[in-house]
Write a structure and sequence with these properties.
Blueprint (H helix, E strand, L loop, with lengths): L3 H12 L2 H35 L7 E6 L17 E2 L2 H8 L3 E10 L8 E3 L2 E3 L2 E5 L3 H4 L3 E5 L4 H5 L4 E5 H7 L10 E4 L2 E10 L8 H4 L2 E5 H7 L5 E2 L1 E6 L5 H15 L10 E5 H44 L1 H9 L4 H39 L15 H28 L2 H6 L2
Parallel strand pairs: 6-11, 8-10
Antiparallel strand pairs: 1-13, 1-14, 2-12, 3-6, 3-13, 4-5, 4-9, 7-10, 8-11, 9-10
Helix pairs in contact: 1-12, 2-10, 2-12, 2-13, 3-9, 10-12, 10-13, 12-13
Length: 421
């Protein structure tokens, strides 16, 4: 029940020596400040790393063929093979839980020779033969026109979607891009769209724009690929992880291409889901370290408050003796000391939270003026759950800080207390 007299007494006790109270509470303020800042910094690092994935579907893997490492059915080890277009429906039919199975072929690559020509201009770019679903696995922003569709695929249309860096390299500033033609390895393709996207997989944002997407069927026909598939991008649905399904996918491929069931080298893969989980685990560990360090710093502040409360109890020995003589119960004395400790702890802790919030606001305001797309740090912040945890820590801290002084207070006998000077 609210008692104004009790709160007046608490405020009078805390304000009796302002300098001592402020210096004592600084330890708790600093501890909470460090805790919030460390957690926000961890979140900022996490946001930056996830931003680096460029919105990719993380429940995915990329798969390609390699030389076999075991002989099988009369065929020697070291045999090379290629995925085929027939592998795609076979995987979809035999492995449940997959959302997308996208075969891909590729021309060009890092450091390659010029493979795209338009008039007197030329450039070296990655050219992908893809299915329309690839935009769901590697999201991009269509800045003009459209992306590939299944009609393009079925009719083997020679159309292309180019990155913004391809556009700036092959076109003048005021030239119309849509409807124009570019020549890829001597074959004309009509530009139907442009895109922009963030860098992913370790690539920079600039490199992510130097790509050209054409229909898989048109690519195969134009560049004499037949039914060969260079590699595949496979994404599981929301109810499954690609890590748990990839061995089933490998089994289908091994059976169709007469590969030994125990050959672990014949199929290369990059499991994005597995790598993403490793990164997520790292951030959980960082949060644990942040809590550990923050609580240790906070503990030093709690010890300081506990020591000051012991001094306060010593200074108020006469007062406690008078109250005991007038009938105050040990519980009321204990409650008074604990309440003073909790109030001091909460006030100083909330001041630390406010200070940390102002610092984070300043950092975010500064980051808003910068291009953070290539930075591994973005939007450092904490959610309301962290604030609630901090408040819980403050209440528990206040109880711990006042527990020993409160017990010492109720041990004072009224007669002995009245005799002290």
């Amino acid at each position: 029940m609210f008692s104004r007299d009790k709160w007046d007494e608490i405020l009078e006790s805390l304000s009796a020596n302002w300098f001592r109270t402020i210096m004592t509470s600084f330890g708790v303020l600093w501890g909470i400040f460090i805790l919030v800042i460390l957690l926000a910094a961890g979140k900022g690092l996490e946001n930056g790393v996830k931003q680096g994935f460029g919105g990719m579907a993380t429940n995915s893997m990329f798969m390609w063929s390699q030389g076999t490492s075991k002989s099988y059915k009369g065929m020697p080890k070291g045999r090379y093979y290629n995925f085929k277009t027939g592998d795609v429906p076979a995987i979809k039919d035999n492995v449940q839980g997959l959302r997308f199975v996208s075969p891909r072929n590729q021309l060009g690559g890092f450091g390659g020779s010029n493979n795209v020509v338009r008039g007197l201009k030329s450039g070296a770019f990655n050219v992908y033969g893809d299915y329309p679903e690839i935009i769901m696995q590697q999201p991009m922003n269509i800045t003009s026109g459209r992306f590939l569709n299944h009609n393009d695929l079925e009719e083997k249309r020679k159309v292309a979607v180019i990155g913004e860096s391809v556009k700036s390299t092959m076109y003048d500033y005021d030239e119309e891009v849509l409807g124009s033609y570019i020549k890829i390895n001597g074959v004309n393709f009509q530009v139907i769209g442009t895109y922009s996207k963030k860098g992913g997989g370790g690539g920079s944002q600039e490199e992510a724009q130097k790509e050209i997407f054409v229909p898989f069927t048109s690519f195969s026909q134009a560049f004499n690929m037949g039914d060969v598939v260079g590699w595949m991008a496979i994404t599981a649905d929301d109810n499954h992880s690609i890590t748990s399904l990839k061995q089933d996918v490998f089994s289908v491929i091994k059976k169709r291409h007469d590969i030994h069931p125990e050959d672990e080298r014949a199929i290369g893969n990059f499991d994005l889901y597995q790598e993403f989980n490793k990164i997520s685990g790292l951030f959980l560990a960082l949060n644990g370290v942040a809590y550990f360090v923050g609580v240790l710093v906070l503990l030093s502040g709690i010890i300081g408050i506990s020591n000051i409360m012991l001094i306060v109890v010593k200074e108020r020995t006469n007062e406690i003796g008078v109250r005991r003589a007038l009938g105050a119960t040990p519980g009321s004395i204990r409650g008074q000391i604990l309440m003073e400790s909790i109030v001091l702890t909460i006030i100083s802790g909330m001041a630390g939270i406010v200070f940390a919030t102002l610092v984070l606001w300043g950092i975010n305001s500064f980051l808003d003026t910068m291009d953070t797309s290539e930075m591994m740090f973005a939007n450092p912040s904490v959610n309301i759950g962290v604030i609630l945890i901090a408040l819980l820590i403050l209440v528990v801290s206040g109880l711990l800080a006042g527990l020993i002084p409160a017990q010492n207070a109720i041990k004072i006998k009224p007669v002995d207390a009245l005799r002290t000077e």
